[in-house]
Design brief:
Elements lengths: L1 H10 L4 E4 L5 H10 L4 E4 L3 H8 L10 H8 L6 E3 L10 E4 L14 H10 L8 E4 L7 H14 L8 E4 L18 E5 L2 H12 L5 E4 L2 H31 L4 H8 L24 H8 L7 H11 L1 H14 L9 E5 L14 H11 L3 E5 L23 H6 L4 E4 L8 H7 L3 E3 L10 E3 L1
Parallel strand pairs: 1-2, 1-4, 2-3, 4-5, 5-6, 7-8, 9-10, 9-11, 11-12, 12-13
Antiparallel strand pairs: 6-7
Length: 438
């Protein structure tokens, strides 16, 4: 079983199926296609399938020319909503979301529903790899039983299974899918070897680990490391601000140390699908073993209170100018969760918007990369709102602007010349009398 697949991988005749064509799955599909593998993408969103088939991109940092090169040629990649085509695939990679519930517990519904949709079409000799970030044990305890139940097949005997966590960093000019090393954990030795061979054909390096649980834990450690350090610098921001010290000056100075220090930067809160969510998978799983994760929970508490701190700083700055927040016109600058991307998942800007309106402010937003707010599970009340244009901002009379995300394409200093009060949560504006760091 393993040797047959290894030969197909070596010959680049291994048909790769990728389920979930979002920020993780689509770049991976394009990479396999670029390396000459036959590849099929699966997604339940018919609009994504139609866009790809037409050669159009729905992710800003993925150029349409790459989509056309992959999908708009004979023998190119194809996209579909029909899981029956999984039978053709020799390897199947799952890249579906893993959000949290309102109680900060893992929502396994996407993995479960994907597993059930796949199960009737799993056949002997296939390799299935899960990439969705989750708690240690998910592959063995959740996914494999679902796949085994439908076809009377056994993992390790009839088909191979692995976990290889995604490491995408959208819009990062220094790293892409192919240049980021890939951690791979197999259900057994044969699965691990096959998965390493598959990923090794499209990425610079694979790092095999003992099993699926170790690979799952590796991804959590990476994101917990970021969450805790961001919380630390956010807490230091509060302390240093009270002392009249710029946290950005401190971070920049500390960054000159060539060893023993890594810079992290403060902000208005955490965003994206990874850092605000993934650490709590381990928190939840640790309870099974009677353990508490105090660092993780404290970091989460600090990071989730940052929007409230920004609102307090905004209120104080308005009060110092004899203005009340109620009735004030406030512009939120940046909707995306980080600069230079169009991804708004878990963006702290939504919470800032909610808090400002709760306090009676009249709120608009400006983000040239995210021109309209789409539907989301947690912020449906904002769906349909459109970004102001730069020309409109020049004519609008705002009392204040809060820089929540600092896209490189936005001239924030020009903004500070147009609007009487700037609340800068990213440290991007030059020192001016009307700029308040938050």
């Amino acid at each position: 079983m393993k040797n047959t697949l290894l030969k197909k991988i070596h010959d680049h005749t291994c048909h790769v199926g990728i389920i979930g064509l979002g920020y993780v799955g689509l770049p991976l599909l394009l990479e396999f296609n670029r390396k000459g593998f036959p590849v099929t993408g699966f997604d339940i969103d018919i609009n994504k399938v139609k866009s790809l088939t037409a050669g159009k991109s729905y992710i800003r940092h993925i150029d349409a020319t790459r989509i056309k090169a992959a999908f708009c040629r004979r023998e190119g990649a194809r996209a579909t909503t029909e899981f029956k085509w999984l039978r053709r695939c020799n390897a199947i990679i799952i890249c579906v979301p893993t959000p949290l519930t309102k109680n900060r517990e893992p929502d396994m519904s996407y993995i479960v529903s994907t597993g059930k949709a796949m199960a009737p079409y799993i056949r002997k000799g296939q390799l299935i790899s899960l990439e969705s970030t989750t708690y240690p044990g998910t592959t063995d305890e959740v996914l494999i039983p679902i796949l085994e139940q439908a076809g009377n097949l056994k993992a390790g005997r009839d088909f191979m299974v692995a976990f290889s966590p995604e490491r995408e960093d959208p819009s990062n000019p220094q790293f892409s899918t192919s240049t980021i090393p890939k951690v791979v954990g197999g259900f057994d030795a044969a699965s691990g070897k096959a998965a390493c061979a598959l990923y090794g054909s499209v990425v610079c390096k694979t790092i095999p680990v003992h099993d699926c649980k170790t690979a799952e834990a590796t991804k959590l450690m990476e994101n917990i490391f970021r969450s805790v350090n961001i919380a630390l610098v956010n807490e230091l921001k509060l302390v240093f601000t009270a002392m009249g010290i710029s946290i950005w000056d401190v971070v920049n100075a500390a960054s000159t140390k060539p060893f023993g220090y890594m810079p992290f930067y403060p902000g208005p809160g955490l965003g994206g699908h990874c850092i605000p969510i993934d650490p709590f998978y381990l928190t939840w799983k640790a309870r099974e073993f009677g353990l508490s994760t105090r660092f993780i929970e404290l970091a989460g508490e600090i990071n989730t209170t940052m929007p409230e701190y920004v609102i307090r700083r905004t209120q104080e700055a308005l009060n110092n100018r004899n203005k009340a927040m109620r009735g004030s016109r406030i512009l939120l600058v940046g909707l995306a969760y980080k600069k230079n991307v169009d991804d708004t998942r878990e963006s702290p800007t939504y919470e800032l918007m909610r808090l400002l309106e709760t306090h009676g402010a009249r709120v608009a937003y400006y983000d040239p990369i995210c021109p309209q707010i789409g539907p989301s599970r947690e912020h449906m009340q904002f769906a349909g709102r459109r970004s102001r244009t730069w020309k409109q901002i020049a004519k609008d009379r705002y009392d204040a602007a809060i820089i929540a995300t600092a896209h490189d394409s936005v001239d924030h200093n020009a903004l500070a010349r147009m609007i009487p009060l700037i609340i800068d949560t990213r440290g991007v504006c030059k020192d001016r009398r009307n700029v308040v760091r938050a």
